[in-house]
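Morning, I've got a small favour to ask if you have a moment. I'm working through a protein record and want to make sense of it properly. The fold is given in discrete form, as structure tokens running alongside the sequence. Can you walk me through what the tokens say about the fold? Thanks so much in advance, here it is:
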Amino acid sequence: MLQGTIESSGVGLPGYEVSLYASYTNSSGNWRKLGTRTTDDSGDFSIRYRLPDAPPQHTQPLLFVLAENGPAMLASAIGRGPGIDGSVVINERTTVATGAAFAQFIDGRRIRGNEYGMINAVHMAANMADPETGALGAVLASLPNADATSTMATFNSLANIVAGCVLDRIHCVAMFAAATPGGGMVPTTVLQALANITKYAGAVKVGKLFTLSFENAVYGPMLADDEEPASWLLFIKFTGGFYSEYDYTNLMSGPGNVAFDKRGFAWINDNYVPTPELQLSCAGLRLMQFYPWGESFPGSPYFGGGLSGAGFGISVDRHGDIWVGNYGFEAPVCDGSLPPDPVNKIPATHDSVSLF
């Protein structure tokens, strides 16, 4: 049983038709309805469901909730089946998170795509909005994001555009018109409008959407009336932890290029050993691996293999092996002016390649 609440700014929404869907990622991309209920006077619902039998080689589907009342639609990506523990809250924030993270996979009211991309997107959506509570996701609400960048305010303003649609269907029509790319089809659902805003960032009517963000401004902090964005793209910053200042405890210092493997995992070298700001830094001695949604992979970072200040030298070959070039970036105090210390790679091992 899936239990939850459909709400806007903490207020339950009665009379919404709530549907639970399963999206299968490594079959034919099936999008199957598992059950439908109507919210009660408090906006609550419960849906009993059973996943259809699938061949053993198929992964469990991702589960989505769509709640509709006329043109108004709220949505959430709630995770992978077969069962979801606890209850969920679906509101404007979960809707924006779903629309932005799954933009390339949204087709009208369906969400279908490849396995790696869909799994990555469900985690990225949770970075922006917590599917259990409907509050801001921990990543977006914490440093190095939060009020240190404009993304949280932009995200809340987008949620307010959706809140305007919930308040009055006239605002839904205006949102759909503003989210229509030049020469493109007018979206027919809120999810499709949000997908357009992400996919066609330079072709939608940014200014009209900005005006709509003030019609039902229930989420904050939001963009002020003199902060019209250049686009509605949502940029999330990752530093390997919840911090934004240089220190010895940082995971990375001066990352160079980022190499992505076939699953979307990110491999990043370290030019320097992490130090406090304005302190001299020696050549980086670590290689880091991240999930596509920004979380550090278990066991990372990796050391050894001659790693020494890679600069931009990192690549993934067709077999999935990681190649790192060792340029040896470091301050003079680390290399040459001190007595040799082979154990600590002083002087640094320059002009080599490490294979992982």
